[in-house]
Request: fold
Amino acid sequence: MNKENENLLVRKIEDGTVIDHIERGKGMKIYKLLNLKEETCILLTNVESKKLGRKDILKIANKELLQKDIDKIALIAPNATINIIKDWKVVEKRKATLPNILVNIVSCPNRNCVTRMEKDVSTKFIVEKREPVKLRCFYCERVFEKEDFEELFT
Amino acid sequence: MLFFQAILKLAGGVFISRDIISIRDMNKEEIEKIFELAEKIEKMIERVKILEIMKGKVLSLLFFEPSTRTKLSFETAMKKLGGETIGFESIESSSIAKGESLKDMIKVVEKYCDIIVIRHFAEGAARFAAEVSEKPLINAGDGGNQHPTQTLLDLYTMKKLKGDISNLNVTLFGDLKHGRVMRSLVYGLAMFNAKITLVSPPGLEMDKGIIEEVKEKFDVEIYSSNDVKEGIKNADVIYICRLQKERFSDAFEAEKMAKTYKVTPELLEYAKSDVILLHPLPKTNEIDLMIDFLPIAKYYQQVAYGVPIRMACICYVMENE
Reply:
């Protein structure tokens, strides 16, 4: 599919966020992870990409993402680009990059972790490796990969 | 406070925490300091039965899971140091049964005592409790995660009975998948550069992530095998643990697995003549009863070292108090 055709099929958004360069097949996971129940969204999957071969794109109308949301995206789609759209134009481009520590961003995949049992405790993960992503839960000390978190959003 | 101290440590800073939560937080120097303290204490209690180091201090034992040795040895340790103990040994006899959160319980209990010892079924519970508590805290086991004082007493036993740990071939045998004791111990052994062999029946192998982490961090060789005869032939220490049935969702599967490994006098024919056999206890059927009477069986001596080591741990965390 060339770019012109794509433009014909999917209209631009006036204000909001376009998450580009999502690894193919991960778009729906990002949609679920951001809990976009009220927002108008367009999800494109399997779009041709020079960088990734194939990619997903998620367009969210009238919503600017919080840093917390971007950190979540970085975990599932580390190559994603966040485009902020205002008045039909891209006014800001941000790369989704994982911070060194993730506080209260995602749940611990370990069901026996204290963070899954006690309401007063925030989840904390320390990034031990970025490629491939490896995060250690500060509490249960288990190490998790990207896929372990993806399962939480299927 | 603990979270920020750990972050400081990751950033290469000085780790000043006086909690004992995980063997992963400790270094060799700290462990050797605890061993030195334990040796001094052993000599002192030979002369004076009760020390007065902790006179007027109270230790809380919060046991959300059953325990005999760990709880009793902490109790004995505090009493031998001249202190007092309070606590409970089941959820039913605690306010958790009424729906109280762990955080609230810690905030209440810390007002009654000077030091907290906690065993909890949730992994990471001790770290969370330490984060909340203003008093020093010792982890006495958190789910399938860590049991640092057991590791300290295991290493201390090896040092006392076999000498320099770095010269030892240690074979860990049994359920290496579910046991927090094995998880902690492999880390402690690697820290001392012991030669480690892991032997387990298929399906009970240690988590690969832990093996990789330990190899990478301490630059040690770890051999894994399902063949027990091969795995014990060069061992100076065989460390066996029971099958962690409580961590299985299927009781039938657990029973089936429990029958897949056992140390017998016949099996020990394949081991060196001066090998010693350790076990964190309680043991179920994984050691033939005959072996209890053999000189290689050192698990009752091992359990005795639990008292001086836990006395040393109490003194260590209370050092700044």
